[in-house]
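Consider this:
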Amino acid sequence: MDNAAYRRCKFGQNLAAELGIMLLYLPSDSPNLNLIERLWKFTPKQCLNNCYDETFEAFKAGIDACLHDIDKKFQSPIATLMTLRFQTFKIDPIVAG
């Protein structure tokens, strides 16, 4: 999970502990590990660069069109951008002596 405050609240931590869920947080300043951050970085480059919109409605429509057709129009870059190929770490129990 990311390090948003609402993800670290006592209620969530207590509930996870009761359910036996180990919460693992992404390192700070690591947007590349969060897939939605990759999409947010990609989108403006594709639909906002070198573009002027007269109205806010036109601006929103451009973004909506980009996101609506992203899997067709940008299939190749999205396929390489939105991968789950991450380095993983084995979690070993800590033994105190």
User: Anything to note?
Assistant: The chain has a mean pLDDT of 82. The chain has two domains: 1-28, 34-85. Residues 1-28 form one domain. The longest helix spans residues 35-47.
